[in-house]
């Protein structure tokens, strides 16, 4: 049974590709090797989502909003980071945050 299957496979390879079975399997093996080398150079898709644990430990949650009361846009512009002695403040949807760490 297996011998008949092998003979049928050899005939089919020769009929469809015009190559001898040894040449066909050599070309297939070389193509597979080239594929693995090229995919190894560019990395797999699973490598893109991995964030090193060391980086995760360095990340800290955002500090709570700064309580300055109500200030005008002009007063907030004084804290734009141009003066290194003053904190860098940012307003997002009415909340004021100290983002001095990310200068």
Automatic annotation (TrEMBL):
Molecular-function GO term, any one: steroid binding
InterPro entries: Cyt_B5-like_heme/steroid_sf (IPR036400), MAPR/NEUFC/NENF-like (IPR050577)
Keywords assigned by UniProt, alphabetized: Lipid-binding, Membrane, Steroid-binding, Transmembrane, Transmembrane helix
Transmembrane segments: 12-38
GO cellular component assignments: endoplasmic reticulum; membrane
PANTHER family: MEMBRANE STEROID-BINDING PROTEIN 2, MEMBRANE-ASSOCIATED PROGESTERONE RECEPTOR COMPONENT-RELATED
Protein name, UniProt field: Cytochrome b5 heme-binding domain-containing protein
Species annotation: Salix udensis
């Amino acid at each position: 049974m297996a011998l008949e299957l092998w003979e049928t496979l050899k005939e089919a390879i020769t009929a469809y590709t015009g190559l001898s079975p040894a040449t066909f399997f050599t070309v297939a093996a070389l193509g597979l090797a080239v594929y693995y080398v090229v995919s190894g150079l560019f990395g797999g898709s699973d490598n893109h989502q991995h964030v090193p644990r060391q980086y995760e430990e360095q990340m800290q949650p955002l500090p709570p909003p700064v309580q300055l009361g109500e200030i005008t846009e002009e007063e907030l512009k004084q804290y734009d980071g141009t003066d290194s002695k003053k904190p860098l403040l940012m307003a997002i949807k009415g909340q004021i945050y100290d983002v001095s760490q990310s200068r």
